[in-house]
Give the backbone structure.
Amino acid sequence: MKICKNCKVKIMSNNNSCPLCKTVLTSSDEKVTEDIYPIIKTNLQKYDLITRIFLFISVLGAVLMVAINYATYNGLLWSVISTALILYFWSIMSYAIKHNINIAYKFLVQTISISLLTILIDYIMGYTGWAVNYVVPEVIITANIAVLILIIVNRMNWYNYILYQIAIATLGFIPLVLYLLGIIHEPWSTTISVAVSFVILCGTIIFNDKDVKNELKRRLHF
Amino acid sequence: MNNKMNDETKWYKLDNTANIFPVVSNKRISSVFRVSVTLKQEIVQDILKEALEETLNYFDNFRVKLKRGLFWYYFETNKKSCLVEQEQDYPCAFIDRLSNNQFLFKVTYFKKRINLEVFHAITDGGGAINFLKSLAFNYIKIANKNELSESTLKTPSIDVFSDAEDSYIKHHKKVHAKGLGYKKAYHIIDKRIPLSIISTIHGYMNTTNLLNLCRKRNVTITQYLSTIIIWSIYKEYLNGQPSEDPINISIPVNLRHLFGSTTSSNFFSILSVGFTPTKEDYTFEEILEVISKQFEEQLTKENLSKKISLNVAFEKNIFIRFIPLFIKNIILRIIYNKSAKSSTSVLSNLGKIDVPDEFEKYIDNFSVLLDITEVEPVKCGVCSYGDKLVCSFTSKFETPYLERAFFRFLQSEGINVIIESNGVHNENL
């Protein structure tokens, strides 16, 4: 044990200076004390480098496209689309690839972002309604079927997906609302989307078991 | 997969104070504290893992993962197995709720020491110590099978079978929810250590000597130590001059004994003692008198019961309950940030840790480390075992002025202090 002549305290350390005041220590005995904490390697260089590179490329790309779009403007704001695509890329990076996130939740996020993205593209290209008429209902139908397959494959854990399943099925009724508001003109895709959602909700009610009920109780407790 | 059909997933609501932690926690505010026990033998990973599995059987509220509901967070039984690792990080690092097999605590070891790092949402210092004790006993039992008696080996290593009741709800009285007023406190401003590096300084002293000194001054150990912290800040950072804002120390108090609860969830409340220097050159005795008086005023069952009731009334408020979680999070974060500014530092005294006689000879000491935040960059955890009391400071400051003044003061009062550190202040950063 060593003694700091300024602090007057005893110090258990292999270092030559006092941790409190950095005074050089005089040793009272030669016994080597054990380190009580491991040496921690903080890696300064690798610190999220890949994320930072991607972020920089994203910003660079977006700025470049806006600049080119502005310089050669001919009535089409195509740089908005490219910027939206970059944002979509980040949404995939942060949700779709991440481990340990509920797969049904990923489907939900993808359904919403793809729908919004296509509506935006449609709007920029001079609105013709192809996104809301065809893409959105079909994306929702696909998501519904995907969750259904997920549940069939992983029956034991159905309760894990239930909240997102209900959310996606509920999304299926949005085309109906848009149809009634006169925004959608194409009845077929809307009809199928509503029918699939309705059947899935009915199926959920008919086949629900104790696990599903408990999961809903947990998720919705207030 | 098949056995999952049989054991139903259990779930728990977060207790009243736990609700705040998932909301405010991130890499900068970890809300993770560490309790450690140092044994007299080197730790073997496989034995520790076995001891942990055994211990978890008795603590349902540790075997959980955090899930998001529409209105509140909740815990769900975690069926994965918990990992044990060698210590390789600074203490009290953030526990990502998706990493670590989704467990909300971490068990690590280094040489002879077992560390338990706990996300505050599952339990407080009192609950963590109970878990750590049980873990240590189970470890000792497995590692020293031949030395211990049959009856010791057979008895479960716990005091009370885990109950995860929300004691806040149980002991609250109906009051009308109203906002608690917060006043800004003095904050230490000094150069900070870069990155996620945290300095740790332990000071060991003799419990009896300290206790005698406190008796002579007619105060408790917590009153005495918190006054030394205020005194050190007043001398070192304010240079003994007046300050507009008070130097406030938050003191968590364990409510289990006071209300007769054995819960293994959170059950603590926070006292706030403070001192506003209005003139120059106060003496230590003057401050000690002010602080111990504040302790006596605040540390009554009526006052604490009122505090609990106000918090429960907030949770039970019908408007709050039906706000969707993501909006609730914004509200809670604003409240938390406001309340955090009203405290300069924290002193948490876990008190005397008792162990049964048969385990005493295997255990060297216990210690507790608190997580630090932007507004409270230095904190102190205290606990005692046998005749050894340890004050452990975690800090984000490059120069340990507070720790230095604190331990020098104790030494000048005739208490012999032995210092141990994680060496951050010896490194050239």
